[in-house]
Write a structure and sequence with these properties.
Blueprint lengths: L1 H8 L1 H22 L1 H8 L3 H29 L1 H15 L2 H4 L3 H33 L4 H18 L3 H4 L2 H19 L25 H27 L10 H24 L1 H19 L4 H15 L2 H9 L7 H29 L2 H26 L1
Helix pairs in contact: 1-2, 2-5, 2-7, 2-8, 2-10, 4-5, 4-7, 4-16, 5-7, 5-10, 7-16, 8-12, 8-15, 11-12, 11-14, 11-16, 11-17, 12-13, 12-14, 13-14, 13-17, 15-16, 16-17
Length: about 375
């Protein structure tokens, strides 16, 4: 909790942390309207999966060039520009009149999300190096907090009765706070390093963690994209609860990330991944019960299980010797967002061809595979 106190008492740390929250406030607001967009455009699950694929494709496309842009602009300025871009592009997926325009809007929104994601993680890495203070996990906690705020916004759907107005209010909140705090980080640039030629050889110790990132971020994306539809179509939940799975997932993920630095320092990285997988497996089992309230609890437990894994991966990726922090972060992000890129399409076709329940059985199997991978890692170390 020391890192959380640091963020809440110092604008130098709060500014970057709010960018994390901003990204998920806007992304989460889009997510809670997915069932409505699907109905209004009269598209099936497979077609929706293809549209979401374009969002992930936009994220993934920006990775090869992001580090060069960030280094040229300066990481602080790049983060501020990223915050502006997500505000400018967030509303378009919700007002798209057709599948084609939806796919284009999601691609652009995904690209701005990807650029902002790499910028803000690189920024936190650089501040940690400069100040010798750890707040990466807590910053990711703010990302999850943004999801909680977006999930709470689902209860305002009947009040606004207008998705564009709802997103407009979210954009106004995000931009106003970023405008107030961006000066605290805007002029930060990456520290010079003794640069070596970039090579995947440098990341050999991280290959297994890259696979973990792929599965965990892919699973996060699946829950964001499909939890509302699962509660609607499988659990037959009332409309007021369609966003509750996403809310539970984000709430417990937020709690886990605020505690992440403290837990990791005491039990170690491999053990925390293993315990997280066990909790996530239990969560998926509850989701697959198809009982509305058990499923909501299950989504929450899955969020708790996955909460601390990705922040640690970003911290490691940003501190690889001889590699610019933006390149290391981009490598970890690329591994994770590959799950976002492939997951929605695969799961969409599984849901359409077989059932939505089978998509979550597949995610359960992935969590079990990661658990076995961590057991092998521990035995190897021993």
């Amino acid at each position: 909790m020391k890192s959380l106190k640091l963020i809440l008492t110092n604008p130098r740390y709060f500014g970057p942390a709010w960018v994390f929250a901003s990204l998920n406030i806007l992304f989460g607001t889009w997510a809670i309207y997915i069932p409505f967009v699907k109905e209004d455009l009269d598209i099936n699950k497979a077609t929706l999966g293809i549209a979401i694929f374009f969002l992930s494709l936009g994220v993934f496309t920006v990775f090869p060039i992001a580090s060069r842009i960030i280094n040229r602009l300066g990481v602080g300025k790049a983060t501020w520009i990223g915050a502006i871009l997500i505000c400018l592009t967030a509303i378009f997926p919700l007002i798209a009149p057709s599948f084609i325009t939806l796919a284009i809007a999601l691609f652009i929104f995904g690209a701005t999300n990807g650029f902002t994601d790499i910028s803000m993680n690189t920024l936190v890495t650089e501040i940690e190096k400069e100040d010798r203070a750890n707040f990466m996990s807590a910053s990711h906690g703010f990302f999850s907090l943004g999801g909680v705020l977006a999930g709470l916004g689902s209860f305002l759907i009947p009040v606004f009765d207008d998705r564009a107005l709802h997103m407009g209010m979210a954009v106004l909140l995000v931009f106003a706070v970023n405008f107030l705090f961006h000066k605290s980080y805007k002029n930060i640039v990456a520290a010079p390093i003794e640069k070596e030629p970039f090579s995947f050889q440098n990341f050999r110790p991280l290959l297994l963690l890259g696979i973990v990132s792929f599965v965990v971020m892919g699973s996060e994306g699946a829950i964001v994209d499909w939890s509302g539809l699962f509660l609607k179509e499988v659990s037959i939940a009332p409309e007021a609860l369609w966003g509750a799975g996403f809310l539970g997932f984000q709430t417990l993920m937020t709690v886990g990330r605020f505690l992440g630095d403290w837990i990791s320092s005491r039990i170690g990285s491999v053990r925390i991944v293993a315990i997280g997988c066990i909790i996530a497996i239990l969560g998926y089992i509850l989701v697959l019960s198809s009982q509305t309230y058990l499923a909501i609890i299950g989504f929450g437990l899955t969020g708790l299980g996955f909460s601390v894994i990705v922040p640690e991966l970003f911290r490691i990726g940003g501190n690889v010797k001889g590699v610019e922090s933006s390149q290391g972060v981009a490598f970890i992000a690329g591994s994770g967002y590959s799950g976002f890129l492939l997951g929605p399409v695969i799961l969409g076709f599984i849901a359409e061809k077989f059932s939505l329940s089978l998509t979550f059985i597949a995610l359960l199997a992935c969590a079990v595979a990661v658990l076995f991978a961590t057991i092998l890692m521990r035995r190897k170390r021993a």
